[in-house]
Structures are given as structure tokens and as C-alpha cells.
Amino acid sequence: MRLRSLLAAAVAVAALTGPAAASETFPAKLAGHAFLPAMTMIAPPADAPRDAFVSGKFTGKKRNEVPMSVVGDVGAAYGSHPTGISLPFLGQPVQGMSGFAMNRAPDGSTYTLTDNGFGTKLNSPDAMLFFHRMKPDFATGKVERLESVFLHDPDRKVPFRIAYEGTDSRYLTGADFDPESIQLLNDEIWIGDEFGPFLIRATLDGRVIDVYPTELGGEVLRGPDTPGVTVPSVPGKDFRVQRSGGYEGMALQPKTNLLWAMLEKPLLGADGKPEGDFLTVMTFDTGKAAWTGDSFRFRLAEGATAIGDFNFIDDTRALVIERDNGEGDPSLECKTEDTASCYPLPAKVKNIVLVDTASVDKDGFIRRIAQVDLMKIRDPDGKAIVKTAADRDLKGIFTFPFFTIEDVMRVDVTHILVANDNNLPFSGGREIGRAADNEFILLDVADFLAAK
Q: Is residue 173 a part of any domain in this protein?
């Protein structure tokens, strides 16, 4: 038995020596912590339709026009815990930090993105789409929102009917797109969408310049929410992109100005099932405004189900967030059917992965170099400023136990910046019964960033 075990282990190690192999885990130290409160709202532009001044009216089984009348909760799969924040909202929620741009604004602030609103096309027609410039202050623990820019389509570049089609301002909403990744290039904004999936090109004041459908091997990729996909439709035949499986991560490669657009979930095969435990990455030439035809694969770690963001740190190496679908500290995992004070699906796999796009194996898999475990961050200096509910001693330990962690970027040769999407008001993570804030963490990961 002992000999067979050793032989099996040797075979397993040999199988992991290629470019897509399992990677070394490096330590991370919390160097700063700041947050934007969950209940952060902004007013729509003055010329927006009146409909947009109260958002979240369609998140229940029927229209609800009474502001702050229905408490949000995390959903049955997560224990139906209330989050303490009620819908509909007066104004537009800033929630949902869903991507960092690699290039920063001249003042050093970071471009980031609010996603589609409340999770689906059907429940988000009154959720406006916008991006921001933000600057976390780790001395005060606060995040300053310097600017918010609303996406609009006055030139009718969107190739389908939008929710506010008949208005003069033609602002975009969560019924039109689900923006999940953002990049800044030559004073233009590029956004990766999940519904199409599409690439959206816009000016710095939010005016849409163009919208590009996705092409892979000469095929236009579609999802169940792509305009033109009708019901009934056959998964794997009428659409290959899974629902909420579009461009969660889209990296801008220095020097080449190629966008590396990574799907959040595996594509569907002809049988309607995921084609494997890997994600497809396609490259788009911003200079030619066309897909290059090249594609690659990113292998998910065991237990991971999706990615959250993707950003280069030099000419070829890049950071990828990979995650499971859990939230909450694993020490509070439910042991019985009573979920009132526990997490049925706690957070376990929350990684920042360093990859080398110049090292690709014969099957197209990008090499995983190293990773950081966001559930095991060292905090010897007590930098954490938000309490985490747990049935264990977390002294000196900081975790990032959120369902959706969707923002990562390199700050300098030593640090990375990470943030979460709090899915307001439908996610918790820190404490049962309390909505997650928009947290920004600065991590000291010098050895990790130097790994080759």
C-alpha cells in the first residue's frame, strides 16, 4: 500500500509539471484596509428619466414603488439571512465594484466599475450603468469617490433596443448590459460585458463609441441573455456562453495594447454541459478594433468555479482572481438544516493567481506561476478595521470571505490592491445579518510579485 501510494503521488506530481500546473502559494500581509459603506447612493444625472430616481423597483415578484420597504437577503442557498438594507433605493447604489483598470488617472486615482445593478436583465431596468474614479485612504480607512460617469448612447451605437430607447439622453441600464471589467487606454474606456458578451468602447464622459460582439474561431459567441437569442433555446447549440459567464476579467497588455478578455465560466459544449474546468481567453486588437483569432485557456484550481478580475503587472505576467461561490468564514459552516446563525456555503477558495501569458502549453493553457490565498492573509499589525464573524480566533489573521471578489491590480513592486463586489443588498460575508461593504485591501506580496 505504501509503495502504491508513493507511485500514485509521483504520477500526480508529473502531471502537474506543465505550464498549467498547480502553483506555489505565497504569503500575503495586510498593509491597508478601507471601505465604502454598503449604503452609498448617488443621484442620477438631471436629464435622466424619472424612472431612474428610484432603483430596484423590479427585484421582487411584482413592481414595488415604495422606497426602502422590502429588506434584502442573501437568498435561500446562502441561508436567507437578511442584510439589513431595504429596496427600492432612493437614487442609484454605488455598490458592485467590478473591475480595476490597470492604467490610473493622472491624479493617481483608480478607475473602477459598478456592475449591472441587481443581478439580471429582468430586475435591473432602472439600474443605471456607470464607472468611477476612486481613491482609498488607508490612513483614515475611507474610500473617496472622486467622480462617477454614466454610460449613454446618444449616437445609437448599441446594436439593439435599449431600455431608455425613446429618451433624449439614452442612458444605459442593467437591462442592456452587465459591465464587469474596465480598462483605460488613450483617454478611452473599454468595458467587458457579461450579457453579450460584448466589448464596449466609450469616451471618458461615458458616451458609447462602439460595441463589438465576441468572435471565437469564426463563430460569434452568444449567451442566453444576448439580444436575438430566443426562448426556447438549446444550450450548447443556440448559445455557448453560460448565464453570467461573460467578461468578468479583461486585461490590457502593455506595449501591444491587446485586450485579453477572459470568460467568467467555462463555455458550453455541444451537449449543453461545460466543456471543462477551464476558462477561455480571447485577444482583441484595440488598434484594429478586431479580434485577433487567438485564444487561450486558464485552468481553474480545485474548488474554484469562476474568476473575478484579470490585470497585467508587466509585459507578460498578469493577476487573476479565482473563487468559489461561497461567502462567510468557514468556521461558521452549517452543521444542521438550521441556517439562522451559520453559512450553508462558506468561502473557501479565494485566490489571486499570478500567470505568465508568454508560457502556454500545447493545449493552450496559460502557466500558473504562483498564488495568494485571500482566506489566509497575515495581519500582525492589526490593520483590519471591519469585524469578521467566526467561530475561531482570528487574531493576526485577516480573511476576505466574500462571494464575489472582482477587483485586483498591481500598485507597485511590493503591493497589490484588491476589492469586492458587494451585490447590494444581496450579499454578506463579514457578519450574518449585515450587508457587505465595498472593501479595498492593500496587500504586501513582494515575493509573490517577483515570482517567475
A: yes
